[in-house]
Structures are given as C-alpha cells and as structure tokens.
Write a structure and sequence with these properties.
globular; about 10% strand; about 425 residues; two-stranded antiparallel sheet; 10 strands; TIM Barrel; 8-stranded parallel beta barrel; alpha/beta
C-alpha cells in the first residue's frame, strides 16, 4: 500500500480517538524536523516500529522566504520533496511496501513568530503569515497551527478577543485559498495562549474554545482538529523548567474532548519517562518535540570530534570551535537562556561550560552553515580515513533514533499504524 494518502491528519486523529475509546492509550508524537537526520530517522523508525509520522515545521525552520529556513535552507515545497526523496529511498514508492502514515504541518503559523519579523507593523506581519499559508498549501501540507499568541511589538495592541478574530480570519483565508488551489481538505490547530508557561484554568480554557468555535461556526468553516493547551512545560537551555502541571494535564484534555477536539501539548522536550508515560493516560492526543532531539544530534557530533582527538591526539576539524563560533554569531541563543542567565557573547566566550551548553542547545541553527557543514564532512571523512569509525553518520543517526524512541515507547505508539489501517478498511 505504501503511503496512505487516503488518511488525512483529521482522519488520523479521529482514528486514534476511536482506538482510545476502545481501550488503547496513545499520544501522537509531533517531530520538529531540525535536520536531515530528524527527517530520515522518524521515517525509518516508523517503518520498523509501525507508527505514524507527524512532522511539525515552524516558520523559522522551513520558510518560503528567499534562501529558505535554517533547516537545509528548505522551503515548504523542497521540504516535501526531501521527505519524498527519503521515502522513495526506503522503497515507500512501491506497492509492496507496508502501510505507512505521514502528515506534515506548519507549526506556530502566526504573526511575529519569525525572528526577522519581531518588529513588523501588524498589517505587514499578517501579510507575511498569509504568504506562508499559501506556500504550505501549494506544497501539500495537511496541518496548520494558526498561532496568534506571539507577543507583538509595543506599537500593536493585542487582546484575546482580537487574537480569536485574527485566528479565524487566517483560517478563513486559508480555506479560500485551499479551494481556489483545488487542494484536499486540511486540518487546523488553534489556541489563544502562548504555548509555554503556566497552565490556565479549566474555565478560561473552556471559554476560549467556545469563543473560537462560535466564530468558526458563524463563518461556516470546518472545525479544527487540535486545540493547544499549556501543561506548565517550558524549555530553557537543556531542561524543561516549567514544572509539569498534573492537574492541567489531566483536566484540559477532558475539556477538549467535550468539544470533539484533540488536545495538543507543545514543549514536551526533556520531560522524564514517568511524566511522558502519563500523557496517554491523561488523554493528551499529541505532543510536539524537537529541541531535545537536535541536542542529542549535536552531542553525538561533538562526541565524534572527541573520539578523534582521543585516538590520534588532535581534532584537526576543530568542530567544537567552528560550531560554537557560528552559534554565537548566527543563532538566536538568547531565547533559550534561563531568566537568571543574561550572558552576552563576550561573557560566554569566557565561560567554557556555559558556552558548550549553549552550543549543544543551539547547534541545530547552524548545521547548514557552509563552514559548519564543511567541518562536519571533514570530521566524517577523517574518522573513516584513520579507521576510527567506519560509519560516523550511523553513529549520529543512532543517537537521534534513541532519543525519538524514548517518546515512541512512552506514548505507546508501536504498531499503531497497523491498528489504524485495520480500523479504516
């Protein structure tokens, strides 16, 4: 059967909800594709362990702007092509391949999310979002997280009522464009709160959903499939500092179900195994993860450089130096710092442990910087040439896959594709 094009993201969520009603406990994993490895690894694992793949790419990671996003300089169109290229290399273009489910969505699609747009006037920021929406529709994305919660410039006044109107405006715009482009139905993810930080009350969450759905119904638009809710998760540096809110995590999904919506959690990085294992039992429909997977990839790369240095007394590639310099020059590392850490570039250059941590946190921003890419390639070639490691690329992939499998197992995702295929026959 190969890729199941007949099951949309909405269909996938509804199928999972039916399995849950029948006794399965499942949380879908949304993966931020921060590198080529984080595109290939989930697909290979999905084939091996029989679970659906959900890619959620932010407007910074994959961009319709000239030059693309920071991930491989990908645009929405070339991102889809890259996925297809990987799938075809694994034989997923043949009739004899197993059933395989994959959906692609745009994450945080709202004004002022892109790094370079933080100071844009309201009209210009919204126009930029519309460009992204059209590009993702044309590319064939199936999921759209309409996120108007990002903090605007001081010159722009924004409240929840205006945020709800703008959210529905953008859904309506997307639907009009989708129809005019002749594209299949797509799925929407909504939310009126920033995705990180302290959770909100059940009452506020319920009222917010009612307000959005009322406006959607008034305009005769399709209801969304996901609503984002905060469970206290918040990522700074290499930890989840928010403090998981068990009460919110168990009660907010129940509110979402009453409105026939799936509950989506963002920032599930660095949560402990016991907390992750609670997600399916609490009815959390899906959770997005990305920075922690990329951090494991960066750690693996730096470990390879250390292996080379340990074995032959030096690392001629100077990978750590090249990566750390590129991070300080080009990565938005300040957004990942804890509140008590206001380090400047000069200060970090004098703090070896802190600089290494920042490099691990933000390495994914500069994987495809020309100098960094050349240095990684040189490291791989030197490891092979000196017979220190036959396949360094596989070493990195193994680290990435191990990080992903921690979530696959905690979320009970093994063999779910087969169950969904059987249920939808």
């Amino acid at each position: 059967m190969s890729l199941r094009n007949d099951i949309s993201l909405t269909g996938l969520v509804r199928a999972i909800q039916r399995l849950v009603e029948e006794g399965d406990r499942i949380t879908q994993l949304g993966i931020c594709p921060m590198s080529e490895e984080l595109i290939r690894a989930p697909i290979e694992l999905a084939l091996e362990y029989d679970f659906p793949v959900l890619f959620v790419a932010s407007r910074n990671q994959v961009s319709e702007d000239e030059g693309g996003g920071y991930v491989m300089r990908l645009t929405p169109e070339s991102f889809i092509q890259k996925i297809l290229e990987v799938e075809n290399s694994l034989g997923l273009d043949s009739e004899s391949s197993p059933d395989y489910l994959r959906c692609v969505g745009v994450d945080h699609c709202g004004p002022w999310y892109k790094e370079r747009e933080r100071k844009l006037a309201e009209e210009d920021a919204i126009e930029s979002v519309k460009h992204t929406l059209v590009a993702c529709l044309k590319a064939g994305y199936s999921g759209f997280h309409i996120d108007c919660s990002f903090k605007p410039p001081l010159s722009v006044e924004m409240n929840e009522e205006k945020m709800i109107k703008l959210t529905v405006d953008l859904i309506e715009f997307t639907e009009r464009k989708r129809v005019s482009l002749g594209k299949h139905a797509v799925s929407y993810e909504i939310g009126t709160e920033e995705t990180a930080g302290k959770s909100i009350s059940v009452e506020h969450f319920s009222l917010s959903i009612k307000s959005v759905l009322s406006e959607i119904k008034k305009r005769k638009l399709s209801e969304p499939v996901f609503v984002v809710g905060r469970t206290g998760a918040e990522v700074n540096m290499l930890e989840n500092v928010g403090g998981f809110d068990y009460t919110a995590a168990s009660s907010l999904p129940e509110v979402a179900r009453k409105f026939h919506l799936g509950f989506k959690e963002h920032n599930a990085d660095y949560l402990s195994n016991p907390i992750l294992s609670l997600h399916p039992h609490y009815g959390i429909t899906a959770a997005n993860v990305g920075p922690s997977f990329a951090a494991e990839q960066t750690r693996a790369l730096l470990t390879l450089a250390e292996i080379k240095q340990r074995k032959i007394g030096k690392d001629s590639s100077n990978l750590y130096q090249v990566m750390s310099e590129a991070v300080l020059e080009k990565a938005p590392f300040h957004k990942w710092l804890r509140k008590e850490d206001g380090w400047t570039v000069d200060e970090l250059q004098e703090k070896s442990a802190e600089l290494r941590a920042v490099t691990v946190v933000c390495g994914h921003y500069i994987y495809y910087d020309e100098k960094v890419r050349e240095t990684i390639d040189r490291l791989y070639n030197n490891l092979k040439k000196n017979e220190l490691l036959e396949n360094p690329e596989a070493y990195v992939m193994k680290a990435v896959k191990k990080a992903i499998m921690r979530y696959v197992d905690a979320f009970n995702l093994r063999r779910i594709t087969s169950k969904i295929s059987e249920a939808t026959k």
